[in-house]
Design a protein that fits this description.
alpha/beta; Endonuclease, Chain A; about 35% helix
């Protein structure tokens, strides 16, 4: 069997696996340390109004803080749902978080956005299965990786 040649030089990348509910604190920490840009693609997300200590809200609050300090924040949410409740939550986020330096939009109706991706400052990529919901936090077995590599991040940006 012939070995598959690596597409990227992984020797210069650092990879941090993230399993379960620790994702939200780790993602919020990365967002709080962003200096230039944050781009997110997400299948489904939910903001829990009136629950300031909710871990999912901590991620969105970190995004708002980043935008307030001048970081360009962009979120692209799925809108191709058969589930109207999920669609309603994504639309709420797209409207609720629109502000200076904070763009939130719905993807096209003909294409389903199933990716769960965060790109930070052209050198950090977070990719995996975590949606931004209580189910992802408490019920589902979710896993993601944090990759620190400009080459990988630029691949997803392009």
């Amino acid at each position: 069997m012939k070995a598959i040649e690596p597409t990227y030089n992984w020797q210069t990348a650092t990879v941090d696996p993230v399993v379960g509910s620790s994702f939200f604190d780790k993602a919020a920490h990365l967002i709080d340390n962003a200096g230039e840009s944050i781009s997110i693609c997400i299948f489904t997300a939910r903001y829990y109004r009136g629950q300031s200590r909710n871990p999912i809200n901590s991620l969105f609050n970190a995004l708002r803080r980043a935008a307030n300090r001048g970081v360009a924040v962009k979120i692209l949410l799925n809108q191709n749902f058969s589930d109207s409740e999920a669609d309603r939550h994504n639309r709420f986020i797209a409207q609720y978080f629109k502000a200076k330096n904070f763009q939130a939009a719905m993807g096209g109706k003909s294409t389903r956005i199933h990716a769960k991706l965060i790109l930070i400052d052209n050198h950090i990529t977070v990719v995996g299965s975590h949606n931004y919901s209580a189910r992802a936090h408490k019920t589902n077995f979710e896993s993601s990786v944090i990759i620190k590599s400009p080459e990988i991040t630029l691949f997803f940006i392009n």
